[in-house]
Amino acid sequence: MTTGIETRDAGDRQGPAPTGGPEAASVPSTSPIEDAVGLARDLHAALSGVLLGTPVAVTTAVVAALSGSHLLIEDVPGVGKTVLARALATALGAELSRVQGHPDLLPSDITGVTVFAPDTGKWEFRPGPVFANVVLLDEMNRTPPRTQSALLESMEEQQVSVDGESWPLPRPHLVIGTQNPLGQVGTYPLAESQLDRFGLSTSIGYPDADVETRLVLHNGGRYALDTMVPVSDTAQWERAIASTAQVHVVREVAEYAVALIRATRSTGSVRLGASPRAAISLLRCAQAHAVLWARPYVTPGDVQAVAVACLSHRLIAEGTAGEGALLVGRIIADTPAPPTSGGPRLRTGGRVDGGQPMPQWWASPPAWRGSPCPASCSARRPPRWGS
User: Fold this and answer.
1) 172 Cβ partners below 8 Å, 6+ apart?
2) pTM exceeds 0.90
3) Cα gap 35→304, rounded to integer Å
């Protein structure tokens, strides 16, 4: 099962069109949120040109970037996990630091170390690879627990403490961890506290025959990285994260998100449900999803669209390994959602497109642009949580 945030029927075309459709004319934006919408559109298009036929993983990566959430990619070798991380860093104009996980990796190999400098007679701190805007820890579960724990402080507090001193990390700071969920020889399962620090998880899956043929003919994939150009820089990325955090959330939607979180703690065989940190992350990712769909406010559909990617990796249940997505899907189906209220959708240049927003799984933007949401598109219809 491919998990993540789905963009229905997006394929490897440009993603959800915040400007009202690919054919809409682009004009200068006038607000920080509209700048974030433009970055979301450009970032989705850039990643879709590299990761062909993977709309779920691409959309999840864009939401992670906009919300400032760390991303866990779980899949078998050779499907493009590292390519996705490199493409995301390149598109954001950010420095990428790659660490290969292996059993002999030490905590200081990630955080850095204090060394004595004979020429100055002082101890000096030498920063490790974690001091980058985007940190890729490949095959994270091949590192021993004490090395995995070196990332706990950096992922939560955006700093590293070495020898009694704390060093701030570059902002924005995004950790991308990868692991193979099938090969367990010589691996160390990620601790619950580590999993809880990843805001989102996704998988990529095998491509279909057409996409795989294009890949072997050097279209997309690693070959597209050579010609990829940034669509942003770190300053613009940081502003987009701040703007996304200002997307309006009414109390009813926040209560719905909390209801989903609390339901994970009492559902059937679940031994460890989602934490309050997960509730905060769920709403932040819902805000990013709203920006991706060019809305300055969050709907219950945004919460449902990101719930699986936000929660499935956090749940620990008896005898249901790997079925977190199904558990979250059942919780969404069983938890009543507040009705979707009407409101405008942003269009680049300060224009608005009236009409009631639809939940993400209902249709792609061109199908409903400019028309009100039918009464049947309420929360009764459960979202698709993978394919």
Assistant:
1) 68, 94, 133, 234, 237, 238, 241
2) no
3) 25
Minimal CA–CA distance to 25: which of 292, 349, 370? 349
Can you tell me which residue has the tokens 């970055």? 39
Task: Provide the token pair at 309.
Answer: 């990617």
Interatomic CA distance for residues 140 and 376, integer angstroms: 44
Q: How far is CA 246 from the centre of its chain?
A: 18
3-state secondary structure at position 288: helix
Three-class secondary structure of residue 263 per DSSP: helix
In residues, how long is the chain?
Answer: 387
Residues with Cβ within 8 Å of 103's Cβ and at least 6 positions away in sequence, in order, are 142, 143, 144, 186
Six token digits for residue 332: 């969404």
Pairwise CA distance, residues 186 & 313, whole Å: 21
- Per DSSP, helices labelled H in 315-376 are 324-334, 365-368
Question: At residue 274, what are phi and psi to the nearest 5 degrees?
Answer: -75, 150
Over its C-alpha atoms, the chain yields an Rg (Å, rounded) of 21
Residue 259 exposure: Cα atoms within 13 Å on the Cβ side: 17
Contacts of 40 (CB under 8 A, 6+ apart): 15, 18, 62, 66, 240, 288, 291, 292
| Interacting residues of 8 by C-beta distance below 8 A, sequence separation 6+ | 360, 361, 363, 364, 384
Are residues 35 and 236 in contact, defined by beta-carbon separation less than 8 angstroms? yes
Q: What letter would DSSP give residue 190?
A: P
Count of H helices and E strands in the chain?
A: 15, 13
SS3 210: helix
Q: Are strands 345-347 and 351-353 parallel, antiparallel or unpaired?
A: antiparallel
Can you give the pLDDT of all 387 residues of the chain as single tens digits?
557 776 543 333 333 333 333 232 333 446 888 999 999 999 999 999 999 999 999 999 999 999 999 999 999 999 999 999 999 999 999 999 999 999 999 999 999 999 998 988 888 999 999 999 999 999 999 999 999 999 999 999 999 999 888 999 999 999 999 998 886 777 899 999 999 999 999 999 999 999 999 999 988 888 899 899 999 999 999 999 999 999 999 999 999 999 999 999 987 778 888 999 999 999 999 999 999 999 999 999 999 999 999 999 998 877 655 578 888 999 999 999 988 655 555 543 333 333 333 333 322 332 222 323 333 333 323 333 333
